[in-house]
Amino acid sequence: MGDMANSSVDFYPKSQRRELNHAGGFGCTLSELRSLMELRGAEAIQKVQETYTDVNGLCRRLKTSPTEGLSDNATDLEKRRQIYGQNFIPPKKPKTFLQLVWEALQDVTLIILEIAAIISLGLSFYAPPGEQSEAKKQDGAVAMEMQPLKSAEGGEMEEREKKKASVPKKEKSVLQGKLTKLAVQIGKAGLVMSAITVIILVLYFVIQTFVIDGKTWAAECTPVYVQYFVKFFIIGVTVLVVAVPEGLPLAVTISLAYSVKKMMKDNNLVRHLDACETMGNATAICSDKTGTLTTNRMTVVQTYMGDTHYKETPDPSNLTPKTLDLLVHAIAINSAYTTKILPPEKEGGLPRQVGNKTECALLGFVVDLRRDYQLVRDQTPEEKLYKVYTFNSVRKSMSTVTCMPDGGYRLFSKGASEIVLKKCTNILNSNGELRSFRPRDRDEMVKKVIEPMACDGLRTICIAYRDFPAGKEPEWDNENEIVIDLTCIAVVGIEDPVRPEVPEAINKCQRAGITVRMVTGDNINTARAIAAKCGIIQPGEDFLCLEGKEFNRRIRNEKGEIEQERLDKIWPKLRVLARSSPTDKHTLVKGIIDSTIGDQRQVVAVTGDGTNDGPALKKADVGFAMGIAGTDVAKEASDIILTDDNFSSIVKAVMWGRNVYDSISKFLQFQLTVNVVAVIVAFTGACITQDSPLKAVQMLWVNLIMDTFASLALATEPPTEALLLRKPYGRNKPLISRTMMKNILGHAVYQLTIIFTLLFVGEVFFDIDSGRNAPLHSPSSEHYTIIFNTFVMMQLFNEINARKIHGERNVFDGIFGNPIFCTIVLGTFGIQIVIVQFGGKPFSCSPLNAEQWLWCLFVGVGELVWGQVIASIPTSQLKCLKEAGHGPGKDEITDEEMAEDEEEIDHAERELRRGQILWFRGLNRIQTQIRVVKAFRSSLYEGLEKPDTKTSIHNFMTTPEFLINDYIHNIPLIDDTDVEESEAPPRRRFRASPPQSPNKNNNAIDSGIYLSTDVSKTPTSSSSPVSPLHSMETSL
């Protein structure tokens, strides 16, 4: 109903809603229901009692039933939609194209280019008196470059959270922050070089003309002098444009967008682009167990029945008929009738499990015993069930009462073995007869049966029954007096097999320097066994496996407050956190992120599937939601959705994240080499020859090669397993390593040597006319064309060198695995031939003969040879080399960047984490609805429940309490993660009443967040309704 209340605001104006409410004939208005849903706990109960007397009174006003729900009347349902709104999350309004354009133009690099473009465009329209401006128009295009918009792939179309009006802040990822800082530094250096170039050219011209030649400034010579000054200015702008790495934002966007597309094939649906590269720096992964590390296909593998411990499915002939019949009836009846075992979709496949996975395991056990559970259900249909005590996370059991032919009753019960066994006073022996079951017998069974099962990673469940004689009817509402004096039928051990690919995936993570931790609601013994099978814990290692209660005891002080110092003593060795609540998961994630005991801050990834996992998913650097088992709220809170719920897909995300980082580094290595050479050539050539050897249009082509084409070629390199053989770079790792700096400067030396040799003695070597000191507007020369062609050839072959950034020698390794790279290199070479041979005056080129082409190619291939020479020089010996491209320091984070969300980051935390606020993701980014966020905040220590679609009263089950329970069990229970997301009060059905159809309308509230008071803490309340609000939600 919370969703209904919210979504209706978007569809009906206030006046219309008011009229609809008054005309609808219902006793509750939309605003009343909305205010009611905002209340929690005792306040909500009091409000219902004061306003409506009880839940039934509210249901009468809404013309609905607390047991049957809404009718199937289409007219009535449409009327309710018009008054209360539709039950779905309203779609978020996407950003318009102009908004994307405006965001793209905010990039620092593009701002520099925009200024240069405006200046250059203005100069292109300048025409001195008596002169034609055509000759200058080609130079005027120096900075007119098209920059693609940042891609909106992977969920960036979604609106960012609302920032405070006084704090306009654009969120940046770690990589973007480093690139922005690097771009600004390079831009400043380019601006200085540009200014020096213009000043030197002007001074050289003035001194040469007016001092050495002794000329005077004549009025008739003014247009000529102005043309020279304009030419000098355009050369300066050319140096600036060449120096500015405008390809950086494009390379990041291409790399991230390409990775997002490819990650879809690896079952990673990326919702936020920056999550790609952040995952590459991950140092810790906190993973769920069920469905992520395991297959979530439960199977009964061990059984204790008739005084015998079976390590495999027993032969039905070895069981007494009475025991077998009781077991089949207990499993078939005392489970959700919506839980079924269906035939496999494909021949030879495994049977399909539909419904609760634990109950599917029990039904599969019945099938393995060659019995048909459906026949039992047909004999005892759901409407004939007399009483049902639904499962909840406190009593850890479920019970169902049926009527016997003699007028008596039989109760079937199943649940956590250590809980149900305490209620057993008898057990069936090998002959199917009752035998006394004393406390010491129970202790012996725990020691010899249950604990060995748990150590094998099995979840143990006890199945029992009790007969009530005909006569006086028991007081069914007193569950504690009903579910006692049970007779144990069997104890089964259920295994959730580890996914076969998970151990290898975890091994890869550990080799890659990533610590994997299991956070589960399972028993500590089961969790430890599964962790050992997965490889999370290894024999001989120093590790910790804790339960949630012990974890909280160790990290909290006498006042119950969490202390970071205590937490810092726990998390480095912690590998398994069992019997944990969503609060524990959030506490662990926050503690690891906030820790300062290491050299660098930990980068944490978290998996989650439930609504309660939302805070942990938002707190983590990268939140992974389960695409199959995950709730809508969990998916909204996540950065990446695992479409197959498989841990191995997380490892693939790590590979892609590291590949993004390396792809950007490869592009930087290539582009900065071009920048250094082009700026020095333009600066030196202009100062010595008063003209740049590379013309403006040629510079545009070179920029196109090193920006757009190089971005596509180097940013689309596929990831390899070698990426997982190194440790994470870390947040403070510079973009340009010392090895990369060695490559940049080494190749720049080679290229500058070739260019200057051709510039000053090239005409002698090729026996052609010199292009130096050519008059203004003189035709293009072969000399400068050879320089231009050689320069481009060296860039093409250096692009191959740039594929390796860690000093590898084989630069061709995997080159044919990237068809985009091969296509771009060959395509660029083909276009270069056309430009040189047929470009003519527009490109300032003169056609070259075959010999000249061969020499250009020979010099270009020399780049590959020179690359091997550079790789032979140990980087450790070059002490003078410095790294570049560090992230923003602590003092460089402005107050505006720190103001992420005042409601989530208090002053003390901001002071503690000034250098880390750039990456902080507050809980407020859950934008499904503002009320969802309020639900998280106001109920952090209350029960959080969300009903799924229910077609059976048996299917009302719960997730673990959001509270830290005082009663912690040591033996595997029914897995909390398998339990449905809500509870229903026990429902009594009398034989005299007509059959009631299952509630078919509860799916109307599937998308909502519902909270109920935790009244289950008192022993007498276990069978009473959880809260009046719960029944109201069911009826709505």
From TrEMBL:
<dbReference type="InterPro" id="IPR018303">
    <property type="entry name" value="ATPase_P-typ_P_site"/>
</dbReference>
<keyword id="KW-0479">Metal-binding</keyword>
<dbReference type="Pfam" id="PF12424">
    <property type="entry name" value="ATP_Ca_trans_C"/>
</dbReference>
<dbReference type="InterPro" id="IPR006068">
    <property type="entry name" value="ATPase_P-typ_cation-transptr_C"/>
</dbReference>
<keyword id="KW-0597">Phosphoprotein</keyword>
<dbReference type="GO" id="GO:0051480">
    <property type="term" value="P:regulation of cytosolic calcium ion concentration"/>
</dbReference>
<dbReference type="InterPro" id="IPR044492">
    <property type="entry name" value="P_typ_ATPase_HD_dom"/>
</dbReference>
<dbReference type="GO" id="GO:0005388">
    <property type="term" value="F:P-type calcium transporter activity"/>
</dbReference>
<dbReference type="InterPro" id="IPR023299">
    <property type="entry name" value="ATPase_P-typ_cyto_dom_N"/>
</dbReference>
<keyword id="KW-0406">Ion transport</keyword>
<dbReference type="GO" id="GO:0005886">
    <property type="term" value="C:plasma membrane"/>
</dbReference>
<dbReference type="Pfam" id="PF00690">
    <property type="entry name" value="Cation_ATPase_N"/>
</dbReference>
<protein>
    <recommendedName>
        <fullName>Calcium-transporting ATPase</fullName>
        <ecNumber>7.2.2.10</ecNumber>
    </recommendedName>
</protein>
<dbReference type="GO" id="GO:0016887">
    <property type="term" value="F:ATP hydrolysis activity"/>
</dbReference>
<dbReference type="GO" id="GO:0046872">
    <property type="term" value="F:metal ion binding"/>
</dbReference>
<dbReference type="InterPro" id="IPR001757">
    <property type="entry name" value="P_typ_ATPase"/>
</dbReference>
<dbReference type="InterPro" id="IPR004014">
    <property type="entry name" value="ATPase_P-typ_cation-transptr_N"/>
</dbReference>
<feature type="transmembrane region" description="Helical">
    <location>
        <begin position="815"/>
        <end position="840"/>
    </location>
</feature>
<dbReference type="GO" id="GO:0030165">
    <property type="term" value="F:PDZ domain binding"/>
</dbReference>
<keyword id="KW-0106">Calcium</keyword>
<keyword id="KW-0472">Membrane</keyword>
<feature type="domain" description="Cation-transporting P-type ATPase N-terminal">
    <location>
        <begin position="49"/>
        <end position="125"/>
    </location>
</feature>
<dbReference type="GO" id="GO:0005524">
    <property type="term" value="F:ATP binding"/>
</dbReference>
<keyword id="KW-0812">Transmembrane</keyword>
<feature type="transmembrane region" description="Helical">
    <location>
        <begin position="191"/>
        <end position="212"/>
    </location>
</feature>
<feature type="transmembrane region" description="Helical">
    <location>
        <begin position="667"/>
        <end position="688"/>
    </location>
</feature>
<keyword id="KW-1133">Transmembrane helix</keyword>
<dbReference type="InterPro" id="IPR022141">
    <property type="entry name" value="ATP_Ca_trans_C"/>
</dbReference>
<feature type="transmembrane region" description="Helical">
    <location>
        <begin position="744"/>
        <end position="766"/>
    </location>
</feature>
<dbReference type="InterPro" id="IPR006408">
    <property type="entry name" value="P-type_ATPase_IIB"/>
</dbReference>
<keyword id="KW-1278">Translocase</keyword>
<dbReference type="Pfam" id="PF13246">
    <property type="entry name" value="Cation_ATPase"/>
</dbReference>
<dbReference type="Pfam" id="PF08282">
    <property type="entry name" value="Hydrolase_3"/>
</dbReference>
<feature type="transmembrane region" description="Helical">
    <location>
        <begin position="232"/>
        <end position="258"/>
    </location>
</feature>
<dbReference type="GO" id="GO:0098978">
    <property type="term" value="C:glutamatergic synapse"/>
</dbReference>
<comment type="similarity">
    <text>Belongs to the cation transport ATPase (P-type) (TC 3.A.3) family. Type IIB subfamily.</text>
</comment>
<keyword id="KW-0067">ATP-binding</keyword>
<dbReference type="InterPro" id="IPR023298">
    <property type="entry name" value="ATPase_P-typ_TM_dom_sf"/>
</dbReference>
<dbReference type="InterPro" id="IPR023214">
    <property type="entry name" value="HAD_sf"/>
</dbReference>
<dbReference type="InterPro" id="IPR036412">
    <property type="entry name" value="HAD-like_sf"/>
</dbReference>
<feature type="region of interest" description="Disordered">
    <location>
        <begin position="980"/>
        <end position="1036"/>
    </location>
</feature>
<comment type="function">
    <text>Catalyzes the hydrolysis of ATP coupled with the transport of calcium.</text>
</comment>
